[in-house]
Amino acid sequence: MMPNRMPSWRDNLYHLLFRHCGLCQLPLAHAEHYWCQHCISHFPSPPYCHHCGSTTLTSVAHCGHCLTQPPRWHRLYRLGEYRPPLQQLVHQLKFCGKFWLARPLAQQLAHQITQPAPLLLPVPLHWRRYSQRGFNQSHQLALALGAILNSRVNHRVFQRLRHTQPQQQLTQKQRRHNLHHAFQLRPITLPDHVAIVDDVVTTGATVDQLTRLLIQRGVKQVDIYTLCHTEQSVN
C-alpha cells in the first residue's frame, strides 16, 4: 500500500539517518536509493509518445497527433504522468522548498534517457518568482541530471524578459499568448544537440517557445527532459 501522506522534514531526516524509503518508511535494500522499488513501481509511468510526450496505449516514436502537427523538438523523455505520487513529489520540490528531491527524481528520469544531450538548459524563472521560491527547480533538476549523464549545464543561455501569469489554469491558446516575447537567447555558442529541462510539461507551450529560439540559432536537435507530462484540453 502507498502511504496516504507525503513525507515531512522529520521523515527525510529519518531517511538520511536510517536509510528508510522516503515514501513508505520501510528499510531500503540499497543505501544510495531514496525510495524502495515497491514505491517506485507505483509511479504513474504508462507508455507514451516519444515525440510529444502524450500517454499512448503502447510506446511509439510518433503518435497520430505528431504525424499531423509535430512538435518543434526532436524527442521528449519523461518520468511519468502528473498523478500521485509523482504529483505530490513535484509539488514538494517546486513549492515546498524540498530541492533535495531533485536528485532522486533525476536518478529515476535518467533511466529513460538513451541518448543524453551534451548540454542541458533549464527553463528559466523570472527574478520575482525566483526571489519568492529561493531556487529554480528546473535548474536543480538539470544539475542532478548533468552529474548523472555527464552533461554540461548552462542556466544562462535563456533569459526571461518579463513576469508572466502562472500557466496552470490557462488553455493552450492562452499559454501561447502568455509566453509571447517572454524569453530571449543570449549570444552563447551552442552544440548541435541540446536538451531543455523542465519539471512539468502540459501543453508544451513553454518548451515550444524555447525550442523555436534554439532552432533559429542553428541547433539541430532539441530534446525535452521532464519529470511529468499532464494532459490539458485544447480550447
Q: Can you walk me through this structure?
A:
The chain has 235 residues and is α/β, with parallel strands linked by helices. The protein is built from 9 helices and 7 strands. The protein has helices at residues 9-18, 37-40, 64-68, 86-95, 102-110, 127-133, 137-149, 172-178, 205-217, and strands at residues 75-81, 119-122, 152-153, 158-160, 183-185, 193-201, 221-229. It has a 5-stranded parallel sheet, sandwiched between helices. The protein has a two-stranded antiparallel sheet with strand order 4-5. It is globular and about 50 Å long. Mean pLDDT is 85; it is low at 1-7. This is Phosphoribosyltransferase family protein. One of its GO terms (molecular function) is glycosyltransferase activity. Keywords: Glycosyltransferase, Transferase.
Task: Describe the structure using short key phrases.
Rossmann fold; 235 residues; five-stranded parallel beta sheet; disordered N terminus; 7 strands; alpha/beta
List the helices and strands and how they pair.
Layout: H1 9-18, H2 37-40, H3 64-68, E1 75-81, H4 86-95, H5 102-110, E2 119-122, H6 127-133, H7 137-149, E3 152-153, E4 158-160, H8 172-178, E5 183-185, E6 193-201, H9 205-217, E7 221-229
Parallel strand pairs: 1-7, 2-3, 2-6, 6-7
Antiparallel strand pairs: 4-5
Helix pairs in contact: 5-7
Organism: Photobacterium piscicola
Domain Phosphoribosyltransferase: 165-230
Family: Belongs to the ComF/GntX family.
